[in-house]
Design brief:
heterodimer; A: two-stranded antiparallel sheet; two-stranded antiparallel ribbon; B: mainly beta; globular
């Protein structure tokens, strides 16, 4: 299991010294101005590699158009990006380079689809006909990649599982991303329009991405307290009802069909959904998925962070979690190759048939496990924050993630009226984490209080923490 | 139902072992720099023989001599980045004796067929 930082010997926590608040605030300010950094750098090689990968991910433009990996994979957006977040960005954000760099005005992005639906242009079937050969895809999060890209067929990256050039590995992914998204012009000449990542940079980027999110899948079933979420979990796991776990073992990205077959691609019929939003707006061509020409399949994403990473599916076709679950009860899925496959495995030959209460129950289950993952992630980052978070930028990013994770933990529960008691603890945890983010001397104390609130929230959601 | 179900499972998963690397951006990666591929899964060298009837080329490089066949569908790209120019789509006809090339094997074990071929652009005339 990779850690961002190894726990080293803890220095005496200055926050434990009883001091007047004003004096501490002044001292905090003086300290931060004097130091320019918030804490010591990581000591062990793996942590240093991850820290370097983080810096590259968020700060390295590769001499291109100004974009970084973090331009689309935002730390405070679960390493994805949503239309609502896009709407908050200034006009000169590098995400919008197609709107202010003349060389990228045509055939680089579709600004209306980007702003309205969070869709990014990709030339996955080649660059010979830029005006007509492209697809529009959402930005997948990069959490839990350690297990979700693993497949008996080799690493599967991106929405269709073939997102990386070279050997197709996660390590190689950044090379393709720089060529596709970072270029200054559509000539895409290395050394002119961008530089390609070095081998060392690819190593660091891979290490950072693998460090994000859960390092192992859940072990379902969980002892959930909420009866609706608990029932949702039962339906999710039931091979005769929800059938969800056949392709999402333990709510991850592995399938269990003819035995465990790892992370797989399926044609689930998303492209045959009627009234897809991007189509209604116009300008979004069909997406043929894996390969060139494509076979219509797309890669299975993990579900642990589904509830807080709307919109859903490769083309951001639906905006709500409940609609995403309901998709599997519909005609598009059940007449698709994947739907027919599930029906063929059913003793009655039945497809997925869910009523509204069952859809809501499955979504409630996904909301609760997402909230629990947010709590786990927040606690991990807060524990690290108490020890120091490297550079000030890294510290700011870490607290942005902590606050966003706690907000998400509250949001996904409150969105379905789940665990109001836990939501109250999460609200207090958020306030404590904010205090920690704004203090240096009292950071450890505030962080530990936030952790305490998070643990109480978790205890209200599961029978054992 | 279990029997037919298994058959469909295997049919659906039949493509799982196919190549999963993306081809589109590969054309812009300079000769010899494809991550995880250049070296272990490619051969780099000078073209020393061309057999159009078999769509086969022979390369001589540091690792010795290699002979590989290109299908009609095998992508051929011309790497012009050293001149500050974008890569071009080429064809088998661009495979000429004396040109530097990199061939990625479709099957690195068999080393018979090319998955793609990159040619270094001719040096501009002085």
């Amino acid at each position: 299991m990779t850690r961002l930082t190894e726990p080293g010997p803890r220095a005496a926590d200055p926050g434990d010294v009883r001091t007047g608040g004003r004096l501490v605030a002044v001292a905090d300010t003086l300290f931060l101005v004097a130091c320019g950094v918030s804490a010591r750098p990581p000591q062990d090689p793996q942590a240093a590699l991850v820290a370097r990968g983080e810096r590259i991910f968020f700060e390295e433009t590769f001499d291109g158009n100004g974009r970084t990996c973090g331009t689309c994979h935002r730390a405070e957006e679960n390493f994805s990006i949503s239309p609502a977040f896009i709407a908050t960005l200034p006009a000169d954000d590098p995400l919008f380079v197609a709107e202010f760099q003349p060389a990228l005005a045509e055939n680089f992005e579709k600004p209306e689809l980007m702003r309205r639906f969070g869709l990014i242009l990709e030339n996955l079937d080649g660059f010979d006909d830029l005006a007509h050969r492209f697809v529009m895809r959402g930005v997948p999060h990069v959490l839990g990649l350690r297990h979700s890209v693993a497949s008996p067929a080799g690493p599967r990256t991106g929405w269709s599982g073939d997102g990386a050039p070279g050997d197709g590995s996660l390590r190689s992914f950044a090379v393709g991303a720089v060529i596709q998204h970072f270029t200054k012009t559509l000539n895409r000449v290395p050394g002119v329009d961008f530089r390609l990542p070095t081998g060392d940079e690819l190593d660091a980027l891979e290490a950072f991405q693998l460090s994000l999110g859960p390092q192992q899948d859940l072990a379902l079933p969980l002892p959930l307290r909420d009866p609706v979420a608990r029932r949702g979990q039962e339906i999710f796991l039931d091979p005769a009802v929800g059938k969800c776990a056949l392709c999402h073992v333990n709510a991850g990205a592995d399938a269990d069909l003819a035995g465990r077959v790892g992370n797989q691609n399926f044609d689930t019929g998303i492209e045959r959904l009627p009234d897809r939003p991007a189509e209604l707006l116009g300008g979004s061509p069909p997406d043929d998925g894996f390969g060139t020409p494509g076979d219509g399949t797309f890669n299975t994403p993990p579900l642990l962070e589904a509830a807080d990473t709307a919109p859903f599916f490769h083309d951001n076709a639906v905006a709500t979690l409940e609609a995403a679950v309901a998709f599997y009860d519909g005609e598009a899925f059940n007449s698709s190759p994947a739907g027919r496959l599930l029906a063929s495995l059913d003793p009655e030959g039945a497809s997925i048939e869910l009523d509204a209460t069952q859809i809501a129950a499955i979504a409630s289950f996904l909301r609760v496990i997402n909230s629990l993952e947010n709590i786990r992630s927040s606690i991990e980052l807060l524990e690290r924050a108490a020890d120091g978070l490297g550079s000030r930028r890294a510290g700011a990013r870490a607290f942005a993630r902590i606050l966003a994770d706690i907000d998400d933990a509250r949001g996904v529960l409150a969105g379905a009226g789940l665990h109001p008691d836990a939501v109250a603890h999460l609200k207090r945890a958020r306030a404590m984490a904010k205090e920690a983010s704004e203090s240096h001397f009292l950071r450890g104390r505030h962080a530990r209080k936030a952790i305490g609130e998070l643990e109480q929230a978790r205890g209200l959601m599961t029978e054992s923490s | 139902m279990r029997g037919p179900g298994m058959a469909i499972v295997f049919a659906v998963l039949a493509g799982a072992g196919t190549a999963h690397a993306q081809r589109a951006t590969e054309r812009y990666i300079p000769l010899g720099q494809s991550p995880g591929v250049s070296g272990p899964r490619t051969v780099i060298g000078t073209i020393v023989a061309v057999e159009p009837s078999e769509r086969r080329i022979d390369l001589e490089g540091p690792a010795g001599r290699a002979s590989v066949r290109l299908e009609e569908s095998t992508p051929v790209w011309i790497d012009r980045h050293a001149a500050g120019l974008p890569s071009e789509t080429g064809s088998f006809a661009d495979c000429q004796v004396g040109r530097m090339a990199e061939v990625a094997y479709a099957d690195p074990e068999a080393r018979q067929h090319a998955a793609w071929l990159k040619l270094r652009a001719e040096a501009p005339a002085p």
